[in-house]
Amino acid sequence: MSTQYAMLGLIAKEASYGYSLKQMYDDLFGSEKPILAGQIYSTLSRLKKNQQIIEIANSDASGGPARTCYEITEIGTDALLTWLNTPEAPSPNLHSTIYIKTVLALLLDGDAAAYLQNQRHAHIQRMRELVEKRRNSSLAEHLQIDHAIFHIEADLRWIDLTSSRLTTLKEELHD
């Protein structure tokens, strides 16, 4: 997901301060990997430069330095709506790391079965972790976890298929 559009979407919902944007982002999208504060502010800087947001300086009642509240512009709203209405291209990952390691294992050792078996175990362990995490998650987290699990399932199907074709693949690679 593009951090830029996530920020635009959060700001479109309501004008916000950088710290609030980080909290909202982490709550909605960062359960596994919270966003760094520096990434928030560099993204806000790029959005401001592209005239997709404006910033509004607000005085803080506590007497501290003025905080900056960010608000979306019409240009930003148009960009966000265009992005939301544009379907994402499916990513086939034709050069996935799992595939590359399988081919290299065949080329170097003549066998990739052990590698694929280890990869299978790692995928199953990750799936178990996600299933456990899903039990106590909100619907939003549940949907994110389901998405990850479905990708793991696809990898597992690929590992099974590839394992059944290793001999043929090895022959093709050595021709």
Secondary structure: elements and pairs:
Layout: H1 3-13, E1 16-17, H2 18-28, H3 37-49, E2 53-58, E3 67-72, H4 74-85, H5 97-109, H6 113-135, H7 139-164, H8 166-174
Q: In whole angstroms, how far apart are the ends?
A: 41 Å
Give the helix/strand class: mainly alpha
Number of H- or I-type helical stretches: 8
Rg to the nearest angstrom? 23 Å
Helix % is 55-70%
Shape: elongated
The largest beta-sheet arranges its strands as 1-3-2
Order of helices and strands: HEHHEEHHHHH
Range of strand content: 5-15%
Q: How many runs of DSSP E, i.e. beta strands?
A: 3
Note the main sheet: 3 strands, antiparallel
Characterize the structure shown.
The structure is a single chain. With 175 residues, the chain is mostly helical. The chain has 8 helices and 3 strands; from the N terminus they run αβααββααααα. A 3-stranded antiparallel beta sheet has the order 1-3-2. Helix 1 (3-13) crosses helix 4. The longest helix is centred in the last third of the chain and has 26 residues, at 139-164. The protein is elongated and about 70 Å long. The two termini are 41 Å apart.
Summarize the structure.
With 175 residues, this protein is mainly alpha-helical. It contains eight helices and three strands. Helices cover 67% and strands 8% of the residues.
Which descriptors would you attach to this protein?
175 residues; mainly alpha
